[in-house]
Design a protein that fits this description.
This protein is α+β, with helices and mostly antiparallel strands. It contains 3 helices and 12 strands, in the order αβββββαβαββββββ.
Length: 162
């Protein structure tokens, strides 16, 4: 059944909710790094430790995550807008060129300079319309630099003003 709502109007309503910006990264069987910008991230459970996010069905990174069974969720600092922009574009592993990472405990790339990260194994996935909802079991997590977060609101980046 198709929604009677105008997608442009609905996108505008969704845009009224301020989100942090994360990038989700994974490594394929050949060791190539993939990444994608995600603002649909949410904590889910402390026991067991779970987090979730959603990816569009045709995402190249989604295929890599499902095959690898592991990924990282990296919370970006306001100084990392360039990484968000780079990974928001369609493409393959070339998007990660110039993004400094180190391997996490699962082997997934952890973005250096992020204000926090979670290294996860794929716990489950669920149908989410034109997206797939992915739930990760957090195997390792750490707080990074004490910098302001990168925020997204009304179709643009924002910063925290105290």
């Amino acid at each position: 059944m198709n929604s009677p709502l105008d997608p442009k109007a609905l996108r505008q309503v969704f845009g009224q909710f301020c989100t942090g910006v994360t990038v989700v990264c994974a490594t394929d069987a050949q060791g190539r790094r993939y990444g994608i910008t995600v603002n649909s991230f949410s904590s889910l459970s402390l026991d067991p430790p779970l987090a979730l996010f959603a990816l569009i069905r045709d995402s190249e990174t989604l295929k890599v995550i499902k095959a690898a069974g592991a990924f990282s969720i990296n919370i970006l600092a306001d100084s990392q807008q360039d990484i968000s922009n780079r990974l928001a574009k369609k493409g393959g592993p070339e998007k990660m060129d110039g993004v400094v990472t180190r391997p996490g405990v699962t082997g997934a790339p952890i973005v250096e300079g992020s204000i926090g990260h979670m290294d996860c194994t794929l716990h489950n996935s669920y149908d989410g319309g034109d997206h797939v909802i992915l739930v990760g079991q957090i195997k390792q997590a750490a707080v990074g630099e004490p910098l302001p977060p990168l925020l997204y609101f009304r179709s643009g980046y924002r910063t925290v003003v105290d």
